[in-house]
Structures are given as C-alpha cells and as structure tokens.
Amino acid sequence: MQVTYYGHSCFGITLQGARILFDPFISPNKLASAVRVDDISADFILISHGHEDHMADAVSIAGRTGATIIGAFELTSWMEKQGVSSVHPMNIGGQKMFPFGKVKMVNAVHSSTLPDGTPAGPAAGFLIQTPEITFYYAGDTALHYDMKLLGKHYKVDLAFLPVGDNFTMGAEDAVIASRYIKCDRIVGMHYDTFGYITINHDEARKHFENEDKTLYLLPIGETTNF
Ligand code: NI
Ligand code: MN
User: Fold this and answer.
1) Of 15, 85, 184, 206, which is the most buried if we count CB atoms within 10 A?
2) Contacts of 101 (CB under 8 A, 6+ apart)
3) Do residues 188 and 204 make contact, with C-beta atoms less than 8 angstroms apart?
4) Residue closest to 189 by CA, chosen among 22, 41, 14
C-alpha cells in the first residue's frame, strides 16, 4: 500500500488499484503549502467527521475528480447539498464492500459539526480490510475501550492514530490504543498543524519505542510504502 501524507490527518492511499483520500484539509494548512491540491487524484474520499480540518477541500476535489465521498449519513447528505454528485452514506458499526476492499465505520469519541453549524452525525473511524492489508484510520478520537474490539476480532497491520493531544488523544494514549488494537506500526496524524497540537517528535516516537512499536511521522508531500 502506497501512502502519501498531505499534512494533518490527510493521506492519499493507493490500494488495490484505487486512489483513496482521507480527510482532505490541504489548502488551508500552512504546513502543506507545497502540496498541489489540483494534482491530487481520488476515486474515493473517506471523511471521519464534519470539522473543517477534515473536509475543507472535499467538495472541490470531489467536483474535479468525480470521487465518491464516504462518511456518516448526515455528513454525506450535507455534501450532496454542496453539489457533490457521488456519495455513500454509512453509520457506526456498518460495513460495505467497495472495489478496493471492505470498509467498516467504527466508533470515535469526538464531536462532529460542519463549518456552517449543521450537525454531521457521529464522529467515526474506519477499518479497511483488503487482501493486501488491513488498517485502521481512527479519525479524531479519544482513547476508548471499543478499540479492543479491533484487536480482538481483526488482525490490524497498520493504524493511523492522532497523536497531537488537546483535541484528540496524544502519543501516550495512542500507545495504549495500539496495545488495544494489537498493532505495532502506527502512522501519526493530527499534530503540529496548529499551536494547540504541536508535539515533540522524538518524545512521541520514544513512547512507542519503549514498547517495541514504531511511530511513523511522515514528511508532508512524500510517499511511503507499507
Ligand atoms: Ni475534529
Ligand atoms: Mn480535527
């Protein structure tokens, strides 16, 4: 699986021949100013919740690429009202097979309101199962005990977890989360973008190294193979 980091919680993933974009927030992100939003291709855009720092570029990218937006029912209904032509609504606990693999919408402990104040339904994470890899994209969330279900019922090869603290869990809780989901390879997200969530990279990595786990803090704009 090829993973390109676009900053904050936004990743472009090439998987089973499909281009999947998570939580597009690029053009307002100063740290991602070198990323050319108009060059990003997408077949599917997965959105964890309605906060602007997870969907700012979703409508424009969906409009240009024709990508299908996958998210909570209330969120995709709002996207349709903004002119997005292809959406797939889901809700917590449901799973659906897509051309690239099976998507399960899972619990996140967070809030979810769109920039105009419209409630966007529940905040969510995603478990993606494919023949190639199984991975968990947590979205914005606190550490919570439902994560144990992922470790109990699935073999999670890679997990995208927030590590910025303040609005979500920080690195120490993310280590506990990685224990719950039984995953040793963690891609950090939701850090450094704003002053509230600036982290010390070495300290964050150390928390994981202490438990023989690896925290990847990917350079923005670069592509990594997992
Ligand atoms: Ni949020
Ligand atoms: Mn956020």
Assistant:
1) 15
2) 15, 16, 128, 129, 130, 131, 132
3) yes
4) 22
Å from CA of 190 to ligand 1 middle: 9
Q: How far is the CA of 131 from the centre of ligand 1 (A)?
A: 30
CA 176 and chain centroid, separation:
19
Other beta carbons within 10 angstroms of residue 153's beta carbon come to 9
Q: What is the pLDDT of residues 101-120, one digit of tens each?
A: 999 999 999 999 999 999 99
Domain that holds residue 62: 2-225
Average pLDDT over residues 77-82: 98
What's the structural domain count of the chain?
A: 1
Expressed in angstroms and rounded, the spacing between residue 152 Cα and the centre of ligand 1 is 27
* CATH at residue 86: 3.60.15.10
Say if pTM beats, i.e. exceeds, 0.85: yes
CA–centroid distance, residue 93 to ligand 2 (Å): 21
Contacts of residue 121, Cβ cutoff 8 Å, sequence gap at least 6? 50, 72, 73, 74, 75, 91, 112
- How remote is the CA of residue 158 from the centroid of ligand 2, in Å? 20
pLDDT by residue (tens digit) across 12-29?
999 999 999 999 999 999
Predicted local distance difference test score (pLDDT) of residue 225: 97
* Residues 222, 5, 68: CA angle, nearest 5 degrees: 125
- Report the candidate in 163, 215, 220, 156 with the shortest Cα–Cα distance to residue 189: 163
Q: How far is the CA of 177 from the centre of ligand 2 (A)?
A: 18
